[in-house]
Design goal:
It is a single chain. The chain is α+β, with helices and mostly antiparallel strands and about 200 residues long. The chain is about 40% helix and about 15% strand. It has a 4-stranded antiparallel beta sheet with strand order 1-2-4-3. Helix 2 crosses helix 7.
């Protein structure tokens, strides 16, 4: 059965999409980032949670502070990408639930009054939103370089507070020269899907 999305869009979003390792110096505008967010904010999450928080690193001073927390192999990429986003999970996301879930406002206190429950839910749902964000970057015709090779504790101390858990850093821009490593293998359908 064919997919509803045409082949060109499938290729843009998935088949040809890879982690970019180099970027051109073409800027990524606030308008592009807003368009990405305005698309991906509709991705489904449990209880319509929106725990993902995006910190855009634009100033040279902030970039320098960020690069020192990246693993050695990721430092040059982060230093030269046109835009870098720190993606984190807001562990106090439940405060927004009465607005985001107006038909079930009691969910805030019924399910998320305890911090461990919030942290678990925030991590899972912010990770879903981070994946939507990466696909949205690709939908904008840009390349994304998501990375978890970094000092998470240092990053949190430098840029976030105790209510925000860092998930990853994403370099964003137009792919540069030799941006891609060779495509790595993927598991087949039969290796992943089980019917019971």
């Amino acid at each position: 059965m064919p997919l509803a999305l045409d082949t060109t869009a499938q290729d843009l979003l998935f088949r040809e999409a890879r982690t970019a390792n180099t970027f051109t110096d073409e800027p990524v505008t606030d308008e592009q980032v807003q368009a990405i967010y305005d698309l991906v904010k509709y991705g489904p999450t449990a209880f319509n949670q929106t725990p993902l928080r995006i910190t855009l690193v634009r100033s040279p001073e902030a970039r320098e502070r960020l690069v020192k927390h990246m693993a050695e192999g990721n430092q040059p990429k982060t230093a030269t990408a046109p835009l870098v986003a720190i993606l984190s999970a807001d562990n106090e996301f439940h405060e927004e639930l009465p607005t985001l879930l107006p038909h079930f406002p009691q969910a805030k206190d019924m399910f998320f009054s305890e911090r461990p429950a919030r942290e678990s839910a925030a991590l899972l749902n912010a990770a879903l939103q981070a994946a939507y964000f990466i696909v949205g970057v690709r939908a904008a015709g840009l390349a994304a370089g998501p990375m978890t090779g970094l000092d998470f504790a240092g990053l949190q101390k430098e840029f976030l507070d105790d209510d925000h858990t860092p998930l990853m850093v994403v370099n964003i821009g137009k792919p540069g020269e030799d941006a891609w490593f060779p495509r790595s293998p993927r598991l087949s359908y039969d290796e992943v899907v089980t019917t019971i």
